[in-house]
Please model this.
Amino acid sequence: MQPTSSAVIRTERLSHSYGEGELRSQILHDLNFQVEAGEVTLLVGPSGSGKSTLLTLIGALRSVESGSLQVLGEELCGASEQARVQIRRRIGFIFQSHNLVSSLTVLQNVQLLLQLRQPDPQQRVRQATALLEAVGLGHRLHHYPEELSGGQRQRVAIARALAPEPELILADEPTASLDSQSGKDVVELLGNLCRNRGSAVLLVTHDLRLLNDADRIWRIEDGRVNRWVPDAAELAHH
Model:
């Protein structure tokens, strides 16, 4: 695979297994794929296909065993824990469960991710407010998560993930608990915000309703990944 300067994620013959000895089971098999800056990339596949394992490797949450995995220009195969921590600080994470702090307001939840980057409390408030206005929640700043709909909570999670100005967003099933329109709205919003910043989005999902919202689609099955270009009938069906 020929490298490109805009690739934010690039793998070459990436493999991963769980267990030892006779119990060892290979989950990922010689993966070769890449994710480009300024694009929304979907990684689709059935449950148990290796999606979540791959996402934890890309997010530097797990050590890379075999092959090459370059994230934001850094090789993660053989990387130390300290090096992986540094990579994680450049990545924004969004999960299905939102993981918002229920005792904090929407504004306070977003400010949490700004504390290390912005020592000025007033500036943190301004930056968090601007992000929440960008995701359409400027009128909900002082509400608590339980007072929001599922789609609104996911928008807060997006604002929080974008707060440290990450170069890469990793989203794990962020639309699974949302209705069709809310899910499409969340992905469209995420894509627009990241394209404006030149960031990349890798969205792991089994929700094929999102096919039309992606710049690039990879399909993983039985631990093997291939580029997928759906035809018009497949796109129309979903």
Summary: Residues 98-158 form one domain. The chain has a mean pLDDT of 88. The CA atoms of residues 43 and 129 lie 31 Å apart. The chain is about 30% helix and 25% strand.
